[in-house]
Amino acid sequence: MDYRAAFQISAAGMAAEKLRLDVTALNLANMHVAGSSAEQVYRPQRVITQTVSFSQQFGRLAGNAAGVQTTVVPQNVAPRMVYEPGHPYANAKGMVAYPGVDNVTEMVTLNTALRAYEANVTAMNAARTMAARALEIGGQQ
Question: What global pTM score does this model have?
């Protein structure tokens, strides 16, 4: 087995989980940003990951996504309407549109991405240790 493939797979997993962390942070940062209307309010985003088959992966060796293909997709979530009649973006009924970001869902996504990132680091360290041991065994003969 080529150790570079193991390193590339772990690196692709770490890149995907970092993107997931970035998107979750973006959703949390925009959670309390009001929009002038319900149509113009921020829409929460999600990262969709998809495994790439061996033949597709072989053609993508020059790219940076070996093993995992990621896509950021905006979610079609209804905005959260809050009654704030003094707000500059309040409509005629005194309602202000905020993004429909669910704090609990974002925190679960954050923890899941963090654990997956740590698992990829562990796998990369294991591959590195195996490669070092193989070099030691090869050097003794």
Answer: 0.81
